Amino acid sequence: MSGFNLALCSMLFMGVSNYLYKRSTDAIGPTNTTFYYYAFSAIIAVFVWLAFREENTPTLAQLGWPLAVAVSLFLSVWTFNLALGSLDVSVASTIRGLFFLVTFALAVALSGEPLTARRLFATALALLAVVIYGTGGKS
User: Quick one: pLDDT at residue 52?
Assistant: First the structure.
């Protein structure tokens, strides 16, 4: 499967998960949803890791990267779940969808990604689309 198709699948699953988060937080609460999300994810991850793990063994220092990812994802999921207590899922998901701005800024500031006119224009268009969608009101 191509990288583009995998990215589309990722987008699809994120959209489904955002919809399901609201149902779960309504049913069992945001903190319980976050806990069980990670508990079930750990079980799934073990099976995926056993089937697809790389052959290299990471050093203790290298394990800091997945730890940082885990903390960041945990905080993203938990705060999103908490937000669903006072926002419609469409509004919370739209705000969450602005994450690409943080990724873009970090890539430019910390990784030296070039800040080209084309990238700025594409980012502005994506931001505009999210803002237009998010301020569209209820239909």
Answer: 94
